[in-house]
Amino acid sequence: MTMRYRVLGRTGIEVSVHCLGAMMFGAVGNPDHDDCIRIIHAALDQGINFVDTADMYSAGESEEIVGKALRGRRDDVVLATKVHFPMGEGRNRGGNSRRWIVMEVEESLRRLDTDRIDLYQIHRPDESTDIEETLSVLTDLVHQGKIRAFGCSTFPAEEIVEAHHVAERRALGRFRTEQPPYSILARGIETSVLPVCQRYGMGVLVWSPLASGFLSGRYRRGQAVDMSSGRAALTPARFDPSIPANAVKFDAVERLVELASDLGCSLPQLAVAFTVAHPAVTSAIIGPRTMEQLETLLKGASLVLDDSTLDRIDEIAPPGTNAYQPDGAWQPPVLADATRRRRPLADRPAAAD
To answer: Which residues are catalytic?
Structure first.
C-alpha cells in the first residue's frame, strides 16, 4: 500500500488522499478511547496525515479522543474540525455567528489539546447569519493564529459563490475548502458544487464515500437486512429492501460488486477510489469504527481506476445523479417551511368562476 498526497486547494498544505474521519470515535460509534487511539495511530503509521472531526461528534468526545491520540505527533498531522451544530442547552450555542464561533473555537482547541487548528470548517449554512459576519470572524481567527485556513461543509454552489463574492468585496479571507457528500450513489455535486470549487481553486474533502454504508457490501439484493443495528437502524427507510425506491440502489450494488470482483478489489475500496478519481476532489474521508474497517479501506489506497472502469460506473450510476438524498445534506429552508412558498390568502387571485 502506497499512500498518495495532494495539495489542499491553493493552501499549499499537502494532505493524504485518504483523510481519517473521526465521527465514529466516541459514544455514537466506538466508545473505547484506547481502541480509537490505536486506530488513529495505525492510520498515521500507514501514511495518513489528514484527520477530520467536529465539535458535535459525540458531543465533543471525538475531539477529545483525537487530541489524546495526537499528543507527540501533532506537528505531523493536518488537523481539521468543524463548527455550527448546537452544543449543549440554551440559546446562542450553535450557528455561524461571531459570538458562537469565538466561544466554540476555544472549546475545540481545549478538547483537541492544541494551540491551532489547521482547517476550521463551517459545518452547514446558517441563513440567520450574514455570511460577512462569519467570514469576518474566521479571518480574525487566522490573524490571531488560532486557525490556519477555513472552509465550508455541505454548502450549495450558490452559497459558495456568494461567500467568495463577499470575501472579495470586503477584503476578507475566503473559504479554501468544501466538504460535501459524494459517492457512486450520490453524484449530485458533480453538476455544480465541484465545478464551482474548481473555479475558485478550493480543496475538496468528500464525506460518505460508502453512501452511508450502502456500499460497504453488507446490503445485498435477496439477502435479509438487519434493521435493528448500524445505519439500517438509524435510517430504516433507506435500507429496507421492501421499499420500491431502494430497488435502484440494490441493483446498482450487485453490478458494482461484479465490477469490483473483475478488478480484484472489494466494493468499499472501489467506492473510495471512485471519489478521488474526480479532478476536483483532494481527499476522501474514511470513517472507520473498527481496526478491521480501517485496514480494509487502506488496502485499496493505491487503487487507481482507469477510464474503462469509470465508464462502467457511469453506466451503473449516471453522472450528476443521486440515487438517494445523503444523510445530513443541507436542504434550503424554503423547502421545509410551506408558508415561505405560498402567498397569503388575501394576496392570492380569486378563483375564476
So the answer is: 57
The C-alpha cell of 88 is what? 449543549
Reading the block at residue 9, the C-alpha cell is 486547494
The C-alpha atoms of residue 241 and residue 248 are separated, in whole angstroms, by 10
Residue 347 and residue 340: Cα distance in Å, rounded?
14
Report d(CA 293, CA 287) in Å as an integer. Answer: 9
pLDDT digit string (tens) for 146-158? 999 999 999 999 9
Read out DSSP for 222-261? TS---TTSHHHHHSHHHH-TTSGGGHHHHHHHHHHHHHHH
Question: In this structure, what are the phi and psi dihedrals at residue 261, rounded to the nearest 5 degrees?
Answer: -65, -40
So what's the pLDDT on residue 276?
Answer: 97
DSSP 134-189: HHHHHHHHHHTTSEEEEEEES--HHHHHHHHHHHHHHT-----EEE-B-BTTB-GG
Alpha-carbon torsion 162, 165, 170, 171, what sign? positive
Task: Tell me if 214 sits within 8 A of 186, measured CB to CB.
Answer: no
Name every residue whose Cβ is closer than 8 Å to that of residue 263 and which is 6 or more positions away in sequence: 270, 303, 309
Whole-model pTM: value is 0.93
Query: Pairing relation of β-strands 5-7 and 14-16?
Result: antiparallel
